[in-house]
Write a structure and sequence with these properties.
By secondary structure, the chain is of the alpha/beta class. It contains eight helices and eight strands. The protein is 41% helix and 17% strand. It is globular and about 50 Å long. The structure holds flavin mononucleotide (FMN).
């Protein structure tokens, strides 16, 4: 099976795979750098990214901000020409400071979920960093892209769907999961449709990336 490259603005990933942000301590420089080196998009999770640093217990925020730079530089050392970015959860303490640090170090992309990243465009203004929300419903993408268009006159550079089969803490209630799985394909179609409307309005290409429960060649094709 051959893949088309993934194009996000001027960025091109030869392999159209974005490695998921997994905190704490999983999506760090070795994983993200290696994925980027192989042609995918490597993602560092900022969730307690500085936990291995000596002063972390006392100066958590300061050490997390130092680690953002350190982990990014180390990932780029592994993947000199590769695409490396960050996953930042909206619910994370110090969200705005963390986003600013990711921009300062030169993140290629920022993917933000665990809540709607309403003010993300404002925080990345003036940078070349590409931004994507993580959403799990057509309602979520509708609200967010409408707000970004109205408030910031822009849209997402790409959209990440975290489906009901994804690992981690998803925000679905236990009895909602089955319905969400049954309706998954329809929901994905709706999300793509809404995203395309904004892509058209802003005259850009906005790829939609699906996450969760993608394990086999059959899943990838689907
Ligand atoms: C151990 C673990 C940690 C995770 N941490 C994060 C995180 O920090 N931020 C986030 O947005 N998603 C997080 N997730 C969700 C993953 O990014 C999500 O599971 C993935 O995109 C979906 O692919 P999968 O089906 O291979 O799990 C985490 C998932 C796991 C399993």
């Amino acid at each position: 099976m051959s893949f088309n490259p993934l194009k996000i603005g001027e960025l091109t990933a030869k392999v159209p795979i974005i490695q998921g942000g997994m905190g704490v301590g999983i999506s760090l420089h070795r994983l993200a750098g290696t994925v980027a080196k192989e042609g995918g998009i490597g993602i560092l999770s900022t969730a307690q990214i500085g936990y291995q640093r000596a002063d972390f217990e006392k100066n958590t925020m300061k050490e997390n901000l130092i680690a953002i730079k350190e982990q990014f530089e180390k990932a780029k050392e592994i993947a000199k020409e590769g695409i490396v970015g960050f996953n930042v959860m909206v619910a994370q303490f110090g969200y705005e400071k963390i986003i600013k640090s990711c921009i300062e170090v030169g993140a290629d992309v920022i993917i933000s979920g665990a809540g709607l990243p309403i003010n993300l465009p404002e925080l990345v203004k003036g940078s070349k960093t590409k931004i994507a929300p993580i959403i799990s419903s057509s309602k979520g993408v509708k609200v967010l892209l409408k707000t970004w268009a109205k408030r910031y006159e822009r849209t997402a550079d790409f959209v990440v769907i975290e489906g009901p089969l994804a690992g981690g803490h998803l925000g679905f209630k236990y009895d909602e999961i089955k319905t969400a799985i049954d309706n998954m394909d329809e929901e994905v179609k709706k999300i793509v449709k809404i995203t395309n409307e904004y892509a058209k309005a802003f005259k850009i290409n906005v790829p939609v990336i699906f996450a969760g429960g993608v394990y086999t060649k059959k899943d990838i094709k689907h």
